Known about the structure:
Helix content: 25-40%
Shape: elongated
CATH topology of the largest domain: Nucleotidyltransferase, domain 5
Strand order of the largest sheet: 7-8-9-10-11
Mean pLDDT: 89
Number of domains: 2
CATH class of the largest domain: Alpha Beta
Number of strands: 11
Distance between the termini: 69 Å
Strand content: 15-25%
Order of helices and strands: EEEEHEHEEEEEHHEHHHH
Radius of gyration: 25 Å
Amino acid sequence: MISPSDPEAPLGxxxxxxxxxxxxxxxxxxxxxxxxxxxxxxxxxxxxxxxxPMLQRSQQLTGRRLLELLVDSGYVTGMDLAECADQGVxxxxxxxxxxxxxPKTGSPFSKDQFTWxxxxxxxxxxxxxxxxxxxGHTRVCSGGREVVEWQYRGDAQTxxxxxxxxxxxxxQKSGRSVQRSEHEELIEAHRAWxxxxxxxxxxxxxxxxxxxxxxxxxxxxxxxxxxxxxxARVRTEFALEVLLHNLLxxxxxxxxxxxxKAIKPMTEKIAA
Length: 272
């Protein structure tokens, strides 16, 4: 599906598998209340690189800097961890990357089975051999951000003669290689942090908060697709939704308090 009248909307696959014009909506919700603290609509079909502008947007709207943020794995990248470290934000979210995936039976050793030696600038493989740095490059990621990565490779002859070769690499000519990001130390620290009981307990709150915002907007407000065309109109439409959501959030306890005051004299009379 295409929309000639909305050229600002990029094309992408929606949740129903339909290729159509899409905008990406982001919200930041308070964990202790239903209030939405930050929101934005992006003219892109994915969540890539939206975390840094959402940090700025939330501070702009509330006048306060976020100290802790709960996100899903799509927002946990080396670049996002570096951004949060610079701004003093504690990020909660699972790390999922191909290099760190848990190996299946019969598959090569995963990267976390290699030991990093910073003083040698090398990785040690499960067999005790060193993988030395052979090259480096700048990778352009989704959203246009760049990250520096280095490749470490084992000696070809050593790897070919290693008794663990079949468990480590399928290459018939070269040695095993692994990639290291410029943000690797932050990634390793984050993975270790997310394994702690404290981090897991806090992260469980995410499913009880942010998903309710989108459920409320879709089911109770009927916003399953934008009625206007163009990024400016789409942002205005969602801003009104956020305003309504927050006004209702503030109004509910006030109404409950008024109802309680009205009921109290009646109960007193009945008791008398």
